[in-house]
Amino acid sequence: MIALVYGTTAELVKLAPLHERLRERGTAPLLWCTAQQFDELPEATRLLGLPEPDLMLARGAEGHSLRTSIDACRWLATVLANSVTKHRAMRSALRSDDLAPCVLVHGDTMTTVLGAALGRTLRATVGHVEAGLRSHDWRHPFPEEIDRRMVGRLARLHYAPGQNEVTNLARSRGSVVLTGGNTVRDSVRMVPADLDPDVGALPEQFGLVSLHRLELLQDDRFALTLQALKVASATTPLVMVYDPVTDEQIERRNLSLIFDGVSFRRIPKLPYFRFVSLLRRASFVVTDSGGLQEECAFIGKPCLVHRVRTERSDGIGTNARLSGMNIAELERFLANPNLLACAELLATHSPSDVIVADLVDRGLAR
Q: Model pTM?
């Protein structure tokens, strides 16, 4: 039996195509949830057409999404406690059919590390989807780069999206499988082209902003970034999508007055389908999200990756530019983002199909 472990909407979105394909083949996987993003997951689950989790290892931090370090500590304690008390039940569930036990995790979050470690304690084969991404600097992004390295040591099946990632995994134990992309490509195809993002009236031209990484939020350059965006919004309106962690930093630093609700709006994080619909309508993107960098690459959207370093090569040199978290680079991009416009690159190749075929070949799925 296969268990998919997730705790964020991004993980759920990228594991959903695998769940769909495995279910179609008669190997419906278990869903084990840590609920890092407790508030957002129910709607994402519904829109993706997924069943409720078979197991809840936590319910966020006392019933809400993680926002602070204290929240994260409480959540971690709950996950670890439940991993112990429910260990026998999880072990039995993984061995409830005639297939070898397997635990699949995705990406680079705390849940990724915990899920991989849990899989090892359950004596299951641990598979890592989106494996091998490296910035080669543990400080950028922090703690994601450390998370990736830890999971790289725990996993025995490494599903690498590109050749660079395969090279990064050359010394890893187990098998490395080139998938030819991330499963999010399959996720984007699940979103109807005519879906309304349902965020109110949008101007014909606008930029989309998504900033959430701690390396930026806890840096003085976060305020300078918002101020530069505010200036640019006088020319092209901007819509900033925020999560609870970003919102907490905006309020703590008294930055909410930067947003006027017209030329520079901020809206709560959207369910994935609605977010992709908003992304498709945007003229350009400013983000510190590696996942959004990748999505922009294969739909041809001009993108500034506002980070010191990125572990992904997707789009860099074509539709995307790395700012180095330099405000002057941000301003240069905002002055003419259309310089990076390019054609949509969304191909028919399915990374999820590659992963499922490999699982079948290994006797882990039918």
A: 0.86
